[in-house]
């Protein structure tokens, strides 16, 4: 048990690579655009105040399941690498795939890794593209629902398609996809305080009185948001300093 908790008490913030990945991890786990996606998806589903409870349960369960899977993959990969070679860097998708192939067999390992990578990419691409399409549609007053056909909401579907195409082109042309992914997640961490700040203000002041957060619950949310934003900003500052040195 001591071996499990010991690393949590000693964080190597002087290690540039660690700070970079820690910052990216925050941006990957608490993605700002996911907040916009969820609000737009709830509107698109035409959920009402009576659905708030089940929507919260859905969010909580989904959060624990997805992070549980993420932790399982990270721990499994780290254990496999450590057992074979000790500490080392994984700088390409091919190197990560080879880790799984070592224990599952070359073909099975690559197939399972590819399936996981494809699944994550499809979900991520769907969320980001829909968020942009919903957001632009709301800004410009366009029809913006998946219930409409393409002929009924051409602006919405055009934005959605262009976002997917743009993401595909960038992913294909960028020489190092892992470096690109880390950069995007660091950008997410940098934007997190702005998004969570506005979200808190909306929940505290802009919602109808009966739905506003109040009292100890509001205080708890403020503390939690402040911790997340504080750590994100701190790591972003360290990353900026390290990059400038």
Automatic annotation (TrEMBL):
Keywords: Membrane, Transmembrane, Transmembrane helix
Protein's membrane topology: Multi-pass membrane protein
Signal peptide feature range: none
GO molecular function list: metal ion transmembrane transporter activity
Membrane-spanning residues: 17-37, 57-82, 111-134, 155-174, 186-204, 216-241
Protein name: Uncharacterized protein
InterPro entries named in the record: NRAMP_fam (IPR001046)
Cell compartment(s), UniProt: Membrane
GO cellular component: membrane
Coiled coil: none
